[in-house]
Specification:
The chain is an alpha/beta fold. The protein contains eleven helices and six strands. The chain has two domains: 136 residues, HAD superfamily/HAD-like (Rossmann fold, 3-Layer(aba) Sandwich); 82 residues, Four Helix Bundle (Hemerythrin (Met), subunit A). It has a six-stranded parallel beta sheet with strand order 3-2-1-4-5-6, sandwiched between helices.
């Protein structure tokens, strides 16, 4: 087995819990609408806006890798229903993006990142809108690979192969760590990477996905300990 020469890491729900950030982002956009576009806010409260976004996602499977465009289309449609053709999409996006990236890393995440980055080149690998600079972890990563740029979302092997290409290693020389059994573990396996499941909540492995991964850790600190050994 080849030695590990690089590490790829998922971001949301691996370095920090993402749901609180997503909820505060929706509230921030809703607050803006209530103040500046009350008719849109009345027509599209948060649950309705989420429903519209789900409908956009279902209608546009070609955008499954691009959550940013999905969200902008959602907002554009919401305003259009209210008779507004020129929605303030850039302003809405900035409000959402800032709040969505105001994350709180788990206590183990930043110390583990420092340890990992001191020994291996790291690449972040995400389907979402997490931004390395705004979340405060940019200094630890050599590369940032997101589905929107690659044109393919996890578990598609292409996004993993794009990451190892940027890192300059073969797939078998990279270890991917992430929280999602299908998106992270199954996707990395299919691409030929070694894989570690970060199972912070003690979840059972889904039998439908085949054999569980060899490496399972409670947090990133445990992953860093294993790599050090």
């Amino acid at each position: 087995m080849s030695p590990i020469r690089a590490v790829t890491l998922d971001l949301d729900d691996t370095l920090w819990p993402v749901q609180p950030a997503l909820e505060q982002a929706d509230r921030a956009v809703d607050d803006y609408l209530r103040e500046h576009w009350p008719e849109v806010a009345r027509a599209w409260p948060i649950p309705a806006m989420r429903g519209l976004r789900a409908r956009v996602a279902a209608e546009r499977p070609d955008l499954a890798h691009d959550l940013t465009t999905q969200r902008r289309l959602t907002q554009q449609q919401a305003f259009a229903v209210c008779g507004v053709a020129d929605a303030p999409l850039d302003t809405l996006w900035e409000i959402y993006f800032a709040a969505r990236n105001a994350v709180e890393p788990w206590p183990d995440s930043l110390p583990a990142l420092e340890r990992l980055a001191a020994r291996w080149p790291l690449a972040s690998l995400t389907n979402g809108n997490a931004d390395l600079a705004r979340t405060g972890v940019q200094a630890h990563f050599a590369h940032h690979v997101c589905s929107r740029d690659v044109g393919a979302a996890k578990p598609d092997p292409r996004i993993f192969l794009a990451a190892v290409s940027q890192l300059g290693v073969a797939p078998g020389e990279a270890l991917h760590a992430g929280d999602d059994p299908e998106l992270d573990v199954l996707g990395a396996r299919r691409a030929g990477l070694r894989v570690a499941w970060i199972n912070r909540h003690g979840d059972a492995w889904p039998d439908a996905l085949g054999a569980p991964p060899e490496l399972v850790f409670d947090d990133l600190g445990a992953l860093a300990d294993w790599l050090d050994d």
